[in-house]
Amino acid sequence: MTDDVPLLGGRYRLGSRLGGGGMADVHRAMDTRLQRLVAAKVFRSATDELGRKRFAEEARILAGLSHPGLVTVHDFSADEDELYLIMELIEGGTLADVTEAGPMPPEDVADIGGKLADVLAHVHGNDVVHRDVKPTNVLIGNDGRAFLADFGVSRLADAAGRLTDSGMVVGTTTYMAPEQISGGDVGFPADVYALGLVLLECVTGRVEYPGGPDAAVARLVRPPQVPYGIPARLRRGLLAMLAADPARRISAEQAGDLLSGRTTEVITPIPAPMPAPPRIPQQRVQRPPTQSMPIQPQPSRPPAAPIAAGALAVLAAVVLAVVLWSESDETPELAPAPGSPGLERLPADLADLERLVRG
């Protein structure tokens, strides 16, 4: 490359093309000011002043993100004739290159999935949605580290003159969430679903929903086939990440905790129940106040014990007399007591009575 080739932004000398898509090309480039290699993503569409302003706002948001697993944005331009991003250059390949060789060991898939989910959680925490998570956007460095690239590119593309056709869904159909296919709201859960499909492809060695209209509709009628026999943390994570209903999908933070083994169980969100109808208060019946009744003092009674004892003694005497009377065959005759009636005869009468009782 000769020195007379115009520099991008008067600073970056473009080198070989590393890749690209329908809206931009990525080149290896040299930052002539800092003398370091970078990656330059050059957009191929011009835009109006409002679009350039939006592009600059989105680029500043991406440039403010910092995470060990995120491809850092160093610089950008939103000029009329130059629209580009300058990013950290990752020497190596992509996750797509790795999966072409066949299924990856499940433990390795769980490890890389946990790291990528942590990156998603960090960016979601800064209110940025990726919208296009796929194997070619996962860079694998020569040292084995994984990086997630192209965050917010769809928003940048929209700002850069609406590069997509009107009504076209932004993203790669193969890894879209059901709500993207059906034209619903696209938010953080869509990124979690896409990452789940990427990890599922890594562990099975095949694309779950190949591109095309039929495959796009397929995820609306059947769930992804998560295999048995893989580590529990990976299976639980994939099932929770690939829930069809975005409201029941776990967050990126929860996915990172589950896949990395920091937790063994994650409670999936449950949609809030419909609010109960308001209760109509019932009219309370007014009741007259309770009036206390005065307690009349009871008259004192004689002790019951002496009375009962006396009655018992009389009853015993009568019973004894009847028994003795019934056992006697003859009616005893009492001899007349001598003396005149009155007090003088009382001792004799008592003696006769005693003799009669004793028989």
From TrEMBL:
Gene3D superfamilies documented for this protein: Phosphorylase Kinase, domain 1 (3.30.200.20), Transferase(Phosphotransferase) domain 1 (1.10.510.10)
Bias kind Pro residues: ranges: 270-280
Record domain Protein kinase: where: 12-267
TM annotation in the entry: 304-325
Single GO MF descriptor: protein serine/threonine kinase activity
Pfam families noted in UniProt: Pkinase
Domain of life: Bacteria
EC number, as in UniProt: 2.7.11.1
SUPFAM superfamilies named in the record: Protein kinase-like (PK-like) (SSF56112)
Keyword entries, A-Z: ATP-binding, Kinase, Membrane, Nucleotide-binding, Serine/threonine-protein kinase, Transferase, Transmembrane, Transmembrane helix
Region Disordered, annotated ranges: 269-304
InterPro entries assigned: Kinase-like_dom_sf, Prot_kinase_dom, Protein_kinase_ATP_BS, Ser/Thr_kinase_AS
Residue numbers binding ATP: K41
Class of enzymatic activity (EC top level): transferase
Leader sequence residues: none
Protein name: non-specific serine/threonine protein kinase
Source organism of this protein record: Saccharopolyspora mangrovi
